[in-house]
Amino acid sequence: MEKPPATDERSSGLRRLTRAGWREIRILTALMLVTGGLWAFAKIAEEVMEGETRGFDRFILLALRTPSNPSDPLGPPWVEAMARDITSLGGIVVLLMVSVAAVGFLFLVRRPAAALLVVASVGGGTVLSTLLKLGFERPRPELVPHGAEVFTASFPSGHAMLSAVVYLTLGALLARTQSRRRVKAYLLTLAVLLTGMVGVSRVYLGVHWPTDVMAGWCIGSAWAILCWLVARWLQGRGRMKAESGEDVEE
User: Fold this and answer.
1) Does the predicted TM-score (pTM) go above 0.70?
2) What percent of the chain has pLDDT over 90?
3) Catalytic annotation on 146?
4) Tag placement on the chain: N or C end, fewer CB within 10 Å?
5) Which of 111, 133, 138, 159 is catalytic?
6) What's the alpha-carbon Rg for the chain, to the nearest Å?
């Protein structure tokens, strides 16, 4: 027996209201995360400048070294080699290559708005990272030998920040082009794992204090979430579509 048209209209209206409610919750949550990330960065920066994190930084850095030989990171030699490979994933050359590849892909699948957003987010994040390093000018750790070459100031960690900017932004943007939740979850999880591993490798190799990496994660994640919000706005205006050509499911 067919449902009366009025019942179908009410059901459709309720579904639209539910979807709208979830959209608002996601946006508010994202704004809270951005605010939290910026607050956490400011708090860490304040503690670092006052010297309050010195004990914590030293404890973590030395905990990752052989007690009898601080120049030797924990674990067999292949672990240190693996850490160098992982840390290169946050290097400027690798991140640039990944970003260019992503922009090319988005243009090929006719997503010019998303491609331009990647250019703006990565370029803006790089400029922000450079300005912050110049502003704080924190010296690199001298407590242990460096396991990788370094050329800039220590705070915030450029590798941690820019890996968050690039990988989280790309993960969020690519997820917005997909309609299946499993694909979205896979892309975002992979982005988080890459960002986390790069940051941990910087501390393990002794080229950053732990608070450098934590600050980089905070500011980089806040930037990536802002880009995700812009992607939602573009999609709402019909500038970004799911791969199937339909709007991404909410």
Assistant:
1) yes
2) 42
3) no
4) N
5) 159
6) 21
